[in-house]
Amino acid sequence: AQSVAQPEDQVNVAEGNPLTVKCTYSVSGNPYLFWYVQYPNRGLQFLLKYITGDNLVKGSYGFEAEFNKSQTSFHLKKPSALVSDSALYFCAVPNDYKLSFGAGTTVTVRA
Amino acid sequence: GAVVSQHPSRVICKSGTSVKIECRSLDFQATTMFWYRQFPKKSLMLMATSNEGSKATYEQGVEKDKFLINHASLTLSTLTVTSAHPEDSSFYICSATGGGGRTEAFFGQGTRLTVV
């Protein structure tokens, strides 16, 4: 079965600093990988995806993610975090016809 | 494009009553819709998968008779929580795939159900 793991429950950064949210994957074959963000009491919003091609994927709201095959990682990054980036972030991988999510990482950006 | 609308966003109901939550794909035909339940600060728990015109596939441990799912058209799926109890209080989220051949799923805004 395909799966992803998010090793950090919580990430705290100061506004303006770089933000990294970690995700590792376990898949057979070539992975499809996704990042979603969830603001309080809202559904999930799609940020970006890796299907194939360039290892650096650019997405919404200034986020990007780097696919690293040797480390089986797909970390989400933002060069300069905003207070408004405070939210719950999920990486996900298709598993049969379903999506398997990581446990989620709560990001808090302090002013 | 690829908007999924979920309604209502919030509902409070009395114990023993039933509540219906709607999930609509507004600008695409959703071949498959998914219903999730989310506990506070936790990941999403898939409850069931529905395909238009066929019976929903429920995940292990989810009561089919309690959480009725109907996928009557390619743009509408409904989740009915029957005989609701306080322990059913949760955040329910739907998602849909099939938008313009894209691989990602699109999510509704979620419904906060409180059973009193």
Annotated CATH homologous superfamily of chain A? Immunoglobulins
What class do helices, strands and sheet pairing of chain B give?
mainly beta
What is the terminal-to-terminal distance of chain B?
37 Å
Our Rg estimate of chain A from Cα atoms comes to 13 Å
- Helix content class of chain B: under 10%
Low-confidence stretches of chain A: none
Instruction: Give, in order, the helices and strands of chain B.
Output: EEEEEEEEEEE
Global morphology of chain B: globular
Order of helices and strands of chain A: EEEEEEEEEEEE
Counting helices, strands and paired strands, the structural category of chain A is: mainly beta
Please report the number of helical segments of chain B: 0
| Biggest β-sheet description of chain B | 7 strands, mixed
Molecular structure report:
The complex is a heterodimer of chains A (about 110) and B (about 120). Chain A is mainly β and about 110 residues long. Chain A has a single domain, classed as Immunoglobulin-like. Chain A is built from no helices and twelve strands. In chain A, the strands form three sheets. In chain A, strands 2, 5, 6, 10, 11 and 12 form a six-stranded mixed beta sheet that branches. A four-stranded antiparallel beta sheet of chain A has the order 3-9-8-7, with no helix packed on it. Chain A is globular. The mean pLDDT of chain A is about 95. In chain B, strands 2, 4, 5, 6, 9, 10 and 11 form a seven-stranded mixed beta sheet that branches. Chain B has a four-stranded antiparallel beta sheet with strand order 1-3-8-7, with no helix packed on it. In chain B, about 0% of the residues lie in helices and about 50% in strands. Chain B is globular and about 40 Å long. Chain B has strands at about 5, 10-15, 20-25, 30-40, 45-50, 55-60, 65-75, 75-80, 90-95, 105, 110-115. The termini of chain B are far apart. Chain B has about 120 residues and is mostly beta strands. Chain B is built from no helices and eleven strands. The interface of A and B includes residues 90, 101, 102, 104 and 106 of A.
